[in-house]
Design brief:
9 helices; alpha+beta
Length: about 400
Amino acid sequence: MSDDVNREFAMSYADLIEVCDNFHSCITRDAAEMSVYGVTPLATAAFKTKINEFLAFPTDAILTYDMMSATQHRNTLANNLRIMARTFGVRAKIAFADNTGRYERFVLEDLSRATDGNLLVFCEMVAHEAAKYLVEFEPLGMSQQTIDDFVTATNEFRLAMIAQDDAVMLRDETANLRMKKANELYKLLVNYSNMGKNIWYEVNEALYNDYIIYDYTGSNSTGGVSAVPAAPENLSVDVNTMIFSWSSVPNTQNYTLEKSAVGIEWEIIYTGPDNFFMYVPETEGINLYRVKGSNSIGSGLYSSLMSFNYNAPIAAPGYVSLTITNASTGEIALNWEEIAEADFYRVYVCAVATGEPAVPANYSFAGEYTVTTFTATFGTGSRRWFYVKAGQTGGELSSASDAVYADL
């Protein structure tokens, strides 16, 4: 995060709220004694308001979910845009000779792995060029509406990119603001702690202890901690959400997550109070990861190393077509575009009454294939919907292709 606000206390947000609530109860109980220091009922009420405002402030978990949703929406639109872009490339290959200038304008090498920025620029160029060759493409099933739909999808993707960037920025800015509010609460705690302890010093030990912020014996110069944090455990990554997480460690103010390709030169990818962080590597391949905690005394030990092999999501198959090859038996042939990175394809089918839409929950697995053709006989009297996913050995499946159907 840019312009990070540093945590000024050595406890979790939940513990901070608990201590604040306890102090509020003590200050209310000791209203007469605390008035010596100018702590009025109005000030006590204002303290409670600050506690409630902090409780109502959006948590990082909520903002991370919003960021993930924006990212997933952007990825979905990007996959759909790649599918649409490939149809223009197929038409250009048929209409023009390979390796000609006109054909090359509709082809982007390794389209499935193009960055968002490159994908956007390429699609804008394709839309512009397609309009110029509408006459050549019309016999191949393209119309002005096809181009208009592609332009709309490109614009939606641009807006999704902006929305995802905004979600990331909002999360960072809100996390800093939340930390600032937490620091303000903690400063009030320190002030009330000093007042309360001075009031009850050598007068009432139990009431004196009520105003101790941390349960330890040591110097306040260390912020209430007597040792560096232990090494975090259970470092892992959820490949579906790309959230790295680890077990929280007591007395930790900040965590530092690092990665390295060879285990020698380490790059910091996250520093903050949370024990989770969403991170998508910029390149594919195996990296080592480790995390450590720190507090006002210093940095703790690193966790055990975690090895993670990142593979960028594979593109969904495009240009899916369905043909009834034998109407009397309900035999069909399903074809789709080859994905260079795919090791196999999985076909899914859904049966509904003739004329009905597909029911997503009713799709079933029809088979796995290394070719781009699927044939089967289903009989007559129903509508069959199909979609295809591409996959890599040991990797995740792509999103679903466009669904197609046939009334048999």
